[in-house]
Design goal:
Layout: H1 34-42, H2 61-70, E1 83-87, H3 94-107, E2 116-121, H4 124-140, H5 142-147, E3 148-151, E4 156-159, E5 165-170, E6 183-187, H6 196-202, E7 212-216, H7 226-238, E8 247-251, H8 263-269, H9 279-291, H10 293-303, H11 318-323, H12 328-333, H13 335-338, E9 342-348, E10 357-365, E11 368-378, H14 382-389, H15 393-399, E12 402-405, H16 412-422, E13 427-433, H17 438-448, E14 455-457, H18 462-477, E15 481-482, H19 487-495, E16 498-500, E17 506-508, H20 518-533, E18 545-546
Helix pairs in contact: 1-2, 3-4, 9-10, 16-17, 18-20
Length: about 550
């Protein structure tokens, strides 16, 4: 065995002379396509762990499909795909396949001179898993162990024939800039705390002629996570909404509507089930998951690859919210029709410099209500707030969903003036508001002369919020709410947690919600105010107090 630190040598060599592979390897046979070369390389490697340990790697049909799609070439022999997404339930052989692909780019038919190959994980232990699998393979293949230097101290492999280097990295170190990746693989992206390492890797390939990036992961339960964004993009490419031949996806996942306890569902989304994916182990876990809610979450995420959070903690299910969505072009086209229309508002002021301010308009219609949200924040400490809240604030600012006021503190005169501008084309009746700091905002209204903004205090306790929660719930469940699919509203909805008092009344639980929920709070208050003023009976009379 060779050394495992600085100055380490190939496992089976005592010199730094460049080792040469056998003259003709299986992938060097003439007439093979690029994908066939990769397949031939992988199938010379050993399986080092699991049920098939000790055998030769034999690609299954679904694995062959993945390889053939990724390494498909154009008329000039150039690889078309530059980034790939592979998402499937755990225990379907992703680690072995990923290790084989990575070695292919380090020392196999996809290797380039002085290549830089990276595998990334959310933390050090995750990033070390693929390195350990690759090392185990190298140590069992004579020609690889003759030419690859293993540096355990740095979690690094170096190919002495191509001068290519492989690095196992994690999100822990602060600086990852300066990379020039020829191939990068992000393992379990769903576990990442933010998208920064992904962005560094995906933008590090500019100097390479044919770079390749692969994300291989189960899904995230968070719809705003970078992994969820990748899955959503992949779905649109597969549906033909986006045209992107450079992006390939293989997605094995159970549909939201599928029965999670039906074994047919299991086989549909687990391509290796009944082969090297153990069916009895899955049955055993499913039996536990039926009885234990926390286990059901794990079962749906890791065994079925569903974007799932416990239903009992959800206020409104994502599918019900989605059913009320209308595209933004349709909402924008309503502006002319809504000119001068009656509307009601709600306001939730930021409590600290790190919070959001949410303002919501609702327009009563014969068939329900139209919702129009607006969000404001200060510029103070936005980068760290993105990381803490796990929210892409900078992206939302660029997209126009979030408006920024420079400074540390929200200026109430500025806010009053903006709300006056936003409502100038409509017949604004009233604005329900959280009483916190409302007197200061009233001063801002008076200062800018926005006399048409009439504020009403909306209690935030159980008695005051339970009717609002019920009104919004009924609107959504009966598909009587139109909304614009604003991503900040989706984020707020996913963060919402509800608590009850002894009488069964409900209110939003800001303290224990997963993140900001201001948009849903203001929507519930605005819908409640509109419902009460339009003569519905779902409202507790007299709970609004005029400022």
């Amino acid at each position: 065995m060779g050394l495992r630190g600085p100055g380490a040598k190939p496992v089976h060599r005592q010199s730094r002379l460049r080792a040469k592979s056998p003259k003709l390897q299986p992938w060097e046979e003439p007439g093979l396509s690029r994908a066939e070369k990769v397949v031939a390389f992988i199938q010379t490697l050993p399986v080092t762990s699991g049920k098939m340990a000790g055998s030769q790697f034999t690609l299954r049909p679904f694995q062959r499909d993945i390889i053939e799609a990724i390494y498909k070439t154009d008329d000039n022999g150039k690889r078309i795909v530059r980034e790939a997404l592979i998402t499937m339930p755990r225990k379907n052989g992703k680690t072995g396949l990923t290790a084989a692909i990575t070695l292919c780019h380090l020392a196999g038919p996809e290797a380039v001179q002085r290549g830089q190959v990276y595998s990334a994980g959310a933390d050090r232990s995750q990033s070390a898993l693929l390195y350990a699998e690759m090392t185990a393979i190298v140590q069992r293949v004579e020609w690889l162990s003759d030419r690859i230097i293993i540096r355990d101290f740095k979690k690094q492999l170096e190919d002495t024939e191509t001068d290519s280097v492989y690095y196992a990295i994690s999100a822990d170190p602060k600086s990852k800039h300066g990379f020039s990746a020829s191939c990068w693989i992000y393992d379990e992206l769903a576990q990442a705390q933010n998208r920064k390492l992904y962005d560094v890797l995906s933008t590090s390939t500019g100097a390479r002629e044919e770079p390749l990036g692969i994300v291989i992961s189960t899904q995230s339960s968070d719809p705003l996570h970078i992994m969820s964004q990748q899955v959503d993009y992949a779905a649109k490419v597969q549906e033909g909404i986006y045209e992107d031949p450079s992006f390939y996806s293989y997605m094995a996942m159970a549909p939201e509507t599928a029965d999670p306890w039906d074994e047919k569902t299991w086989f549909d989304c687990n391509p290796a089930l009944g082969d090297f994916r153990d069916l009895e182990e899955m049955r055993d876990f499913a039996r536990k998951a039926k009885r234990i809610p926390e286990q059901e979450t794990a079962f749906r995420l890791f065994y079925l690859n569903q974007r799932f959070s416990p239903a009992e903690l959800k206020y409104i299910q994502p599918r019900d919210w989605k059913a009320c969505a209308t595209d933004e072009e349709n909402i924008e086209s309503l502006k002319e029709e809504l000119h001068g229309a009656v509307c009601y508002g709600a306001l939730d002021l930021a409590e600290t410099t790190n919070d959001l301010t949410s303002f919501q308009l609702v327009f009563p219609r014969e068939d329900g209500m139209i919702a129009w949200p607006f969000f404001f924040t200060t510029s103070h400490d936005l980068d760290s707030r993105e990381t803490r809240d796990r929210a892409p604030y900078s992206t939302w600012i660029k997209q126009g969903y979030l408006e920024v006021r420079q400074g540390k503190v929200m200026d109430y005169e500025f806010l009053a003036n903006r709300i006056a501008e936003l409502t100038s084309d409509f017949d604004l009746q009233m604005v329900a508001a959280d009483p916190w700091h409302l007197d200061k905002f009233q001063e801002g209204i008076e200062a800018v002369g926005a006399d048409h903004i009439k504020l009403f205090k909306h209690p935030q306790d159980f008695k005051g919020m339970d009717p609002a929660i019920r009104v919004l719930e009924n609107l959504v469940l009966n598909v009587k709410l139109k909304h614009t699919s604003n991503p900040m509203m989706q984020w707020c909805l996913d963060n919402v947690r509800i608590v009850r008092d002894a009488a069964g009344n409900r209110r939003f639980d800001k303290q224990h919600s997963r993140g900001r929920i201001d948009g849903i709070v203001t929507l519930a208050m605005a819908a409640n105010l509109c419902d009460e003023q339009m003569g519905e009976q779902n409202y507790v009379e007299g709970s609004l107090v005029m400022v």
